[in-house]
Amino acid sequence: MTAKNMTDFSAEKVIEIEALNKAFGSYQVLEGANLNLYKGENLVVLGKSGTGKSVLIKIIVGLLRPDSGLVNVLGHKVDEISYQELLDLRLRIGFSFQNSALYDSMTVRDNLEFPLVRNRKDLTKSEVNALIEEMLDAVGLAQTINQMPSELSGGQRKRIGIARTLILKPEIMLYDEPTAGLDPITSKEINKLINDVQERYHTSAIIITHDLTCAKEVGNRVAMLMERRFERQGSFEDIFNSGDQLAQPFYDYNFIQ
Asked: Is the pTM of this model over 0.85?
């Protein structure tokens, strides 16, 4: 298990979050949260259930509005742009769901074709087919093109879900628990795929995970969301080799149980 190179802090900020606050009634979810995602970076977000990780992602893509604070994504303040501008911005952001979110009634080909037909009406049929083949090759599953999701393993469904997200060539990838429910060997394959996507398509990514093996293998940087804000940020070694009492429960859960 090898750690990745650290983040290049001289790179452009593709997501900038400052003093972010979000509450639901009297329940404060995020309070004074600060986080940057740099161009070309894989940033891992760790946090216990209910700490606001999903709320953070929904704010980034404009599904929820912040109560206060700055949320700047690819140069746009997401709570200030028009609805059409928000739709255009979302096409530059890919979201890989925890459950893959494939359409069960569609073949793999049709699942990948769907976002192209819906969002890229300028493409010819041959261009659509070429993109489908490229994405399936990128995730190593060209042979599944005519299969149904029910015929795929959990790891294969994860890969196809990533391929479908990637087919619009987003600048930012958001991965929600990419290795959840997978065996260690398949998890390692998914980790490698996340790194391959970063290298091949020059994406910037936020990876939400509880899996510290995933965090170490894919993350240029780790941010720990605790007590409504990001309490710790740094390399995997900075956080988990320091004896930090806030980080230790995550390490114990993954490696001592």
From this structure: yes
Q: Dig out the tokens for 120 from the structure.
A: 């890229």
Residues 6 or more apart whose CB falls under 8 angstroms from that of 167 comprise 112, 115, 116, 131, 132, 135
Question: pLDDT per residue over 150-176, tens digit each?
Answer: 999 999 999 999 999 999 999 999 999
More confident residue, 1 or 180: 180
pLDDT tens profile 223-249: 998 888 898 899 888 888 766 677 776
Identify each DSSP E strand in the chain by its residue range: 13-24, 27-38, 42-46, 68-73, 76-77, 93-96, 172-176, 204-208, 221-226, 229-234
First to last CA, the chain: 19
Count of residues for the chain? 257
Q: Look at residue 100 in the predicted model and tell me its pLDDT.
A: 75
Rounded distance between C-alpha atoms, residue 239 and residue 248, angstroms: 9
CA distances from 173 to 81, 164, 168 (A): 21, 12, 11
- Distances in Å between the Cα of 132 and the Cα atoms of 93, 126, 195, 198 are 18, 10, 20, 19
Topology classification of domain 1-92+171-257: Rossmann fold (3.40.50)
Is the distance from CB of 108 to CB of 142 less than 8 angstroms? no
Domain ranges for the chain: 1-92+171-257, 105-169
